[in-house]
Amino acid sequence: MVGISNNATSRRMFVLLALISLVLTVAVDVFAHGVTAGDKGYIQESSGTMIIPFIYLGAKHMVTGYDHLLFLFGVIFFLYRLKDISIYVTLFAVGHTVTLLSGVLMDVSVSAYIIDAIIGFSIVYKALDNMGAYQRWFGFQPNTKVATLVFGLFHGFGLATKILEYKMSPDGLIPNLIAFNVGVELGQLMALGMILILMGFWRRTAGFARHAYRANVALMTGGFIFVGYQMTGYFVS
């Protein structure tokens, strides 16, 4: 009876996580990097230092940023120790911070479709990594820490591109950007906490190992869908 209960719980957790991944993937029209139409107007009209509002906007961006959440889900999928999770999340945060701030301050802009397609590819990359594909195909394991940092750079650059499109006021730009980034990191911690709670329940079930591969196949599929959507937008826009 215990085995049956564990299997049922494992199936429910797998279905729940798969549904979350699907919803996040198909939500591309609802959230563009977590910056809604109302937030866009607020950013464009804001002038002067506004610390609290921009912390809120940054946190909202991360919590509703499906691409970031899917990538983080892949990154921590097989991480069990808090120390390891902290290292990878910190690397992602450093990359995200560097390109968010430098991209806006240096006015570096690239097609948002291309950047978002690369972000989608980061999800595919991590899912394949979790599936052991690189060992089987190429006989070596890429440095996952370096990959997390590099993809963090692209994730931050994606948001910087969006912010540049919205033309933030130069009055209070630097403190507002810093506040926004602080909000992003706070939102990341909140989102990561929710993911870890779900993963913790799932990992304690007997079926985790059996469903882990399929979960990463679903994650990879979501990443490919996201890449296809963005590339289609790039060519038809």
Report strand %. Answer: under 5%
Number of helices: 10
**Coarse structural class:** mainly alpha
Shape: globular
- How many structural domains can be distinguished in the coordinates? 1
Distance between termini?
A: 56 Å
Mean pLDDT: 82
Q: N-to-C SSE series?
A: HHHHHHHHHH
Number of DSSP-assigned strands: 0
List low-pLDDT spans.
Answer: 23-34
Largest sheet descriptor: none
Helicity, as a percent range: over 70%
Rg (CA only):
18 Å
Quick description:
With 237 residues, the protein is an all-alpha fold.
Description of the structure:
- With 237 residues, the protein is mainly alpha-helical.
- It has one domain (2-236).
- It contains ten helices and no strands.
- The longest helix has 31 residues, at 173-203.
- The chain starts with a helix and ends with a helix.
Please tag this protein with its features:
10 helices, 237 residues, mainly alpha
Task: Give the arrangement of secondary structure elements.
Layout: H1 2-26, H2 37-45, H3 51-63, H4 66-75, H5 82-105, H6 112-130, H7 133-138, H8 144-166, H9 173-203, H10 208-236
